User: What shape does this take?
Amino acid sequence: MKKFAQKSGQWEERIFADYDSVKYSMIMSRTPRILAFAGGKGGVGKTIVASMLGICLSCLERRTILIDLDFNGSNLLGYLNMCENQKSLKKYFEGRSNNLTDFLQPTQFDNLDAIVFHSNLFEPNNVKFWQRQRLFYEIRRLKADYVILDLGTATSNFALDTILFADDSLFVTTNDVFSIQNTYSLLRSTLMRKLKSQLTQCPSFVTLLNECGLLVDGKDVKPITKAQSQIRKLSRDKFIKVNHIISSFRPKLLLNCYNENESIKDFLLLGSLAKDLLDIELSYWGKVRFDLFVREAVRNLRPEMLLRSSGCASSDILKIAVRNLIAYEIIGAGIAMRKWPSDELLTKGINNSGDELICHPGCYIWENCIKRRKGLKCSKIPKFIKEQSTG
Amino acid sequence: MIEEEYRDMYHQDSANLRTDNNSDIKKVISIAGGKGGVGKTVLTASMGIALANRGYKTVVIDADFGGANLHQALGLFAPALTIRDFIARTENNINNLLLETPIKNLFLLAGSPGTLGGANTQYWIKRKILRHIKKIDAEYILLDIGAGAAFDQLDYFNFADFGCVVILPEPLSIQDGYNFIKLSLYRLLYRRFFKIVEIKKLFLEIFALENIHHHKHFQYIEDRAKLSGQIIRDQWDSILKSFKPVIIMNMMENKQDLFEAVALKVAAYDLLKLNLVRFASIKNDPNIRRAFGLMRPDLLLLPDSEAAQDIQRTIDLIFFGKETKESIEYHLQNKAKFKTPSFTEEEVICSVHCTLWNKCSAQNGGYPCRIKAVGYISQQKEKKMFT
Assistant: This one.
């Protein structure tokens, strides 16, 4: 099995949507595939692309749910032209009595439901750990084929955790310097958050990372590749683990407002920057051309006009949906069997040192487990899970 | 007595820190807009450049902690000194952190992108930064505030002498712009009066409600707050009078776009009793995007472009007070040769107070009502007679 896992490294050189996320949802076939839309810069078009993709999937008769998790500028209500008296997700974060399914609102499209957020003065820091775990658990349990999360320009810990939780994390950019720089810094922040959350439970790691300057916030931070080489000299095992974590983060890029006359040198630079400085493998999902029909539809608040057949953006969105999402519904089951799940997938939610196992919705026994204690130590026999992961 | 308690508790340094007559600073302006991508950073940079070219020493500050872009707009790829140095106390004099830009007389206090947790600073850090901003050695200061309407953005917005709200001719941008104005007013009032327990309870009650967009909230708060005493009534009225944000419509293309701003003005007048007289518009210019893509700020304000002329006009409005000529009505009369929407008593304007608001299919907020049913008009007239 280990040899197989090593060979699989060759497959990952090609630039297309990666299979790991599909495998998980194919194995646990009752869970939806979760997409998270994020972007460092505002006004890039995340909410528009997210709602267009949701509408497209619903027209292809896949049950989709759109969730607005943009606490600082929630717009989904407006783009879908829903009435303002809808139930907002704010109440969910205030107590334990509400389920996520209470907030599902129907839209004018048949297979599309939405969970909206409209509140002011809700600080994103206030989402507590247990609320976040509860939200993720309930999102996994939603009865749908696809769940699309709109995160907005948030850079809070909650937003970064949501990006890491989703099966596919999409970063939307346009072809200008501002958004590319902001996307790069957001990629960096998510990677740092991932390293912090998965490694800081073990004190030996903490000292190592502090030496190499990976946990420091500020301008004196080294590029992650330099830190990696330093870690490698100090301890080989830990280097493998850190490398594992970094390589399991597979963000996807989407180019919006693309103009065929402009050169995309800056955009292509992002891929090489991410590889050189952060050691991240970026996948490319596609480009959406600038379309006046979309602008008119948004101005007149007519979401049904967003996917006009004569517009070029609608065909781009359809291409993206089919290539990256629908193709793997058909082929996905076969590929899942051919390519054995990597160690990373099986140890999801489990501390990499192997000493502590944290109860986490990513654990593959989650649905059948009797003793679920979200966020706390796993009460199952650790040996059983360890044997399975190394088998 | 509440008045006596208030007199003891009230102190000058509550919501804004403008009362300092020792510095050379003539004006502090903040530029915000509830929605992202409206063009705040580009506009701040352009206005700073235009002011500096007129010979004034200007400082442009990047108060957008979540996504600091202002240094790129001025041609600096990676700033050596940022606000993070000030927060980490490696540099205590804020004047040493000002960076020089390719434009003479223009200085920049940069923000640092990409630091984890940069957007969630604590309250005391914010107050410290605001206190030190007054000590900057400059004549005009421009603050670039990020997207959204969180406490950070509202406090920096209210700190300035007055603020500019940037909108696009899109309905969602106008909704977010109105939302921002409303929340900054609430925040200003809250910070001034929160030491009075009754008023604090009022505000918290409203913030906890689910539908904060309901139109009667401001009236509700005002009626109950004014019961507390004469001092509070006077303070309240003086705050409302001094709250005069400027509306800037960016990326305007044709005359039709001006009508979108009228909806904002009507909403603010109806729901918040604010008379937003000052208005500026800037034409859409693709050369600006190109100049920023090449990171050449000197190519921004070429004298031929209409956008540059619009920016010079906004500076006259904002900094030199040429107010009377720049209201929306003036724009509409000059640029659009058709009837302006009039706010007389005879014409019925589509607004939230209409009894058919939620059920009407011909809604057109801010403009004359298209359905002129007789019974409905008589209802409105009766209401006006009795109020």
